[in-house]
Amino acid sequence: xxxxxxxxxxxxxxxxxxxxxxxxxxxxxxxxxxxxxxxxxxxxxxxxxxxxxxxxxxxxxxxxxxxxxxxxxxxxxxxxxxxxxxxxxxxxxxxxxxxxxxxxxxxxxxxxxxxxxxxxxxxxxxxxxxxxxxxxxxxxxxxxxxxxxxxxxxxxxxxxxxxxxxxxxxxxxxxxxxxxxxxxxxxxxxxxxxxxxxxxxxxxxxxxxxxxxxxxxxxxxxxxxxxxxxxxxxxxxxxxxxxxxxxxxxxxxxxxxxxxxxxxxxxxxxxxxxxxxxxxxxxxxxxxxxxxxxxxxxxxxxxxxxxxxxxxxxxxxxxxxxxxxxxxxxxxxxxxxxxxxxxxxxxxxx
Length: 350
Description:
By secondary structure, the protein is α+β, with helices and mostly antiparallel strands. The protein has helices spanning 30-40, 50-60, 111-122, 137-148, 173-190, 204-218, 222-225, 228-239, 286-300, 314-319, 335-349; strands at 20-24, 65-73, 76-86, 89-92, 106-107, 127-133, 153-165, 194-197, 243-250, 256-264, 270-277, 305-307, 322-331.
């Protein structure tokens, strides 16, 4: 049985890629795939992986044009920006629906970021940098660059993203007491202890149950408004090794009471995407118990950051000990898009 993550056992040899920028409009080029995986494995956000981008585009990008910008030097891939064209503007794969948490690109050195901006500006391309982390190297670089050059752009803060930093994190006394109380209540009410699994079996039935729990908890929610998201989620769980479906169940009966879906990226950073629980067991707060056990498990290893992702759900603030600012920069370099923003502003001012 093959492992989920493909091993690059037979690298392509004796093929030279000219220095400079090259745009790919598909996912199937063998040189691109091999070097994309190699660059991602050096440490990057989950949504920059070849597998995540390919799966997202399979489910949501069929009518769109891929525009994967790459930079090559000495036959090595130094930069990759997984973009596509939407409404005449470049945007990150994963946008509309927005199923990623932070904008970034793959690159070897900070100067590669400036080279990308030069390429975008010289070719008069419009781009939407959406959900950029103000504390990331990428975020600091583009802010500095855009403040120095006369690029027409609109920028604003979008939201804050709660995170837990291992170095300064510890559970509060109330959190510890609540966790013990909820686990004791499970034994009292159901005569069974709770069992936590960091990575549940990659079974379709678990994904389907996760989705049903979420629908019941939120009165339909995301999976009803955007049905394709369910297939996207299932594809990730069943076909990637960085997608983590955690499970909390009753020990003897193996009845699931809560799930959590997240990612462990190649930079060893954990991303919390979506928790849910069986509302029939809400009296033991299974969602909080699962998160408590999950954070404990993640920080027991060599992971330094637990990222709760975008969104202002109250449970995130119960655990986080820091917040990061996400901002947006949209450029307007083509006459067509300059007129669009002008007309938009004029409508507001009327």
